[in-house]
Design goal:
Length: 315
């Protein structure tokens, strides 16, 4: 018979001569893996790796700031001193605020790109974000945060000791032997599933750009909304957490991308196939020495005549 999972936190990793903070290590590994996956996919579609790395790192910085701000606003009771506001090395990042901040920061760059390039890049970022978040949630699991209500569900965890970021399950103090839904573990698992689905989608060269991002928004929105239904230590507005409101928006975005954006991109691809050129098939044809413009015969008057990838330092 399945039982709950024994759970002891591990906020540090002892290497003998020094210790590593598990949270910081896992977040860093998640960022590196996510950026590599996004850059690898983007390069196959005409986006230089350095461009993806530069944009990705800047979006990560914006995301960390945004996720920390929203975590602080929803965990005011957990702050004992002003230093706790910035103590991200102990955990405390909330995806909803980070996602919004990263999108706001990335938009000024993406708007200068061609439509096909933009959505190929976003597909790669969705893939990288999925696996990167999964790795990052190991850090959250290690420091003891993102707890749900008490449960004997077979994927629930039984607290067997160790320091925790959240010392209570709602209004009940956390004590050894208590079992509860552990949202860090749940997100680790469903992000691995989502990442695997996206990798399967993107393996085909004829996948319409935007497909992976639409699927990511849909699956993450549904999964996060369901998981947050059992969350106990976050502030709620009208019965929902901030992440649940974001999840509703993401499902709407998924529908828009699937129906409207993908149709426009399919038209762009069809036009490119007629001329034999698309940014994905022949990125070297997307620029020239005089104006960095697509072949006029292929581009016509639409936005595909814009620069394929604009220098980030120009923004």
């Amino acid at each position: 018979m399945l039982a709950v999972i024994p759970y002891t936190t591990f906020p540090t990793i002892d290497l003998g001569i020094f210790e590593l903070r598990t949270f910081g290590l896992m977040v860093a590994l998640g960022v590196l893996l996510g950026a590599w996956l996004a850059a690898r996919y983007g390069e196959a579609h005409g986006i230089p790796r350095d461009t993806t790395y530069s944009l990705g790192m800047r979006m990560v910085v914006a995301g960390v700031i945004g996720s920390r701000v929203t975590w602080v606003l929803t965990h005011l009771d957990d702050l004992d001193s002003p230093i706790d506001v910035i103590a991200i090395w102990e955990g405390g990042l909330q995806f909803s605020g980070g996602f919004i901040a990263a999108v706001i920061f990335g938009f000024p760059v993406f708007r200068h790109w061609t439509r096909l390039t933009r959505w190929n890049s976003l597909d790669g970022l969705a893939l990288g974000l999925s696996f990167g978040l999964a790795i990052g949630r190991i850090g959250c699991y290690a420091v003891g945060e993102h707890f749900g209500r008490e449960s004997s569900f077979f994927l629930a965890t039984r607290y067997d000791g160790g320091s925790v970021r959240e010392p209570a399950i709602g209004d009940v103090p956390l004590v050894e032997g208590m079992s509860f839904h552990n949202l860090s573990l749940y997100e680790l698992l469903y992000m691995l599933v989502i990442g695997t689905v996206l990798a399967w989608i993107l393996r085909g060269r004829r996948t319409t750009p935007g497909t992976a991002m639409a699927v990511f928004c849909l699956l993450y929105g549904i999964s996060r909304f369901a998981a947050d239904a059992v969350r106990v230590n976050d502030e709620r507005v009208l019965g929902l957490t901030g992440a649940q409101y974001l999840s509703i928006v993401l499902v709407g975005v998924a529908a828009w991308v699937w129906v409207k954006v993908r149709a426009d991109l399919q038209a762009d691809l069809a036009a490119g196939e007629v001329s034999g050129l698309t940014p994905a098939d022949d990125p070297s044809a997307a620029t020239d020495d005089e104006g960095d413009r697509d072949d006029p015969a292929a581009a016509g008057a639409d936005e595909r005549s814009e620069p394929l990838v604009e220098d980030l330092d120009a923004d």
